[in-house]
Design a protein that fits this description.
Length: 401
């Protein structure tokens, strides 16, 4: 008898028909003799609808009360799925995050999991019940409900798989695996049979919306075998695991991330510690910085450019402008209409010429690059947003993916 953790996203349970479809999948795994724990997200656009309802009442509602509100979306999903499984005739119980033992810190809306008390879930599994758990949520030391932020249900599922020592954690979405590029606009993109944790982590961090990067980090840390599958068909998915000898592909995937904006500090004083001052100010406000370029400098001044998420742009600009006298820069320039395009592949680190091939593909399509960042297994460039899809297609074709 094995133990399987399954996670179903909002589109997989968006209406009654799909809830029944998920119920049949869960029961099928159960009837094969497995213990089954299921993590479910809120239905369809429920979370967005709840956010809009909050804005109608109070656009500046506290994060604590927003967590109280948003956690109800998953509670609806788990109850409906449990009812569907009851209808099929199998023993089942639904649990909220706190009932399932999720203990978090107190950073409302972006809480981190501290621990999971698995006793109640284990007791129900010992009774051969299917356990349905609300993803995305937990409880803090004040007994307040907290939510885990973007991708929280993926993280919940992987965390449960880790503490329960599950044989596999199956992530069900509306796509049937991890592709070499977004198949919605790259027509010759194809599904990968397997991919390493490191490659998947980079793809997830760079805009591939199949898995959230926090869940991949956790899977790698605790050696959780992940399978990405579609809830709408029975095709074999993509397995995320330690892969000693991946296929002899230099590049495993090409991604595009439109959720970025560029900040340029022009004419900043060229003295030791200036970069530290800039990024320390942003870090204190919880603003993450990605691509960074610093010019050589001209005389006593230099320029520093970097990217942040679109949501953080206005805050970052205000923080830096408010500290202009301390930082001693001439001007600040910002842009929102940019995209980050990246290639990822463990095979890149030992092969020269990968960057050249990527840049050649962009040159051939007359696409300008404004920023570049590299690591052992990725190369990212910043391009105009209007060119992003074309850039992904050009690079994908160039590497014959």
């Amino acid at each position: 008898m094995g133990l399987i953790v399954q996670k179903y996203g909002g589109t997989s349970v968006k209406d009654a028909e799909r809830v029944m479809n998920v119920a049949r999948r869960v029961v099928d795994a159960y009837d094969k003799g497995n213990n089954v724990v299921v993590v479910v997200s809120a239905q369809g656009d429920t979370t967005d609808d709840l956010i809009e309802k909050a804005k109608e009442i109070n656009p500046d509602a506290s994060k604590r009360e927003m967590d109280m509100l948003l956690s109800t979306g998953e509670q609806i999903s788990i109850a409906l799925l449990a009812m569907a499984i009851e209808k099929i005739g199998r023993p089942v119980i639904s649990m909220t995050g706190w009932q399932a033992g999720f203990k978090t810190n107190s950073h409302y809306s972006v809480a981190r999991i501290h621990s999971i008390d698995k006793d109640r879930i284990q007791n129900e599994l010992d009774k051969r019940r299917i356990v349905i758990v609300a993803g995305f949520q937990g409880i803090n030391k004040y007994d307040d409900i907290t939510t885990l932020g973007r991708g929280g249900s993926d993280t919940s599922a992987v965390a449960l798989a880790a503490v329960l020592h599950a044989d596999v954690c199956e992530i069900y979405t509306d796509v049937d695996g991890v592709y070499t590029a977004d198949p919605r606009f790259v027509k010759n993109a194809y599904k990968l049979d397997d991919i390493s944790y490191d490659e998947m982590l980079e793809l997830a961090s760079l805009g591939a919306n199949v898995l959230h990067n926090r869940s991949v980090e956790m899977a790698k840390k605790y050696h959780v075998k992940l399978a990405v599958k579609s809830s709408l068909n029975n095709h074999e998915g993509t397995y995320v695991k330690e892969v000693e000898q991946v296929e002899k592909m230099l590049v495993r995937g090409v991604t595009r991330d439109n959720d970025c904006a560029r900040v340029a500090l022009c004419g900043i004083e060229d003295t030791p510690g200036k970069a530290y001052q800039v990024f320390a100010l942003l870090s204190k406000s919880g603003i993450s910085v990605d691509l960074i370029i610093q010019s050589i400098g001209n005389g006593t001044k230099k320029d520093i450019s970097f990217t942040v998420t679109e949501a953080d742009l206005d805050t970052a600009a205000k923080i830096l402008t408010d500290n202009k006298d301390v930082l001693k820069f001439d001007d600040i320039k910002t842009r929102k209409d940019v995209s980050k395009v990246s290639i990822v592949g463990a095979g890149m680190m030992n092969n020269a010429g990968v960057a050249t091939t990527m840049f050649e593909a962009l040159y051939n399509d007359n696409i300008n690059i404004s920023m570049i960042a590299t690591s052992e297994i990725k190369i990212s460039v910043l391009v105009d947003q209007k060119d992003a899809e074309r850039a992904v297609c050009a690079i994908h074709d160039k590497f014959m993916l």
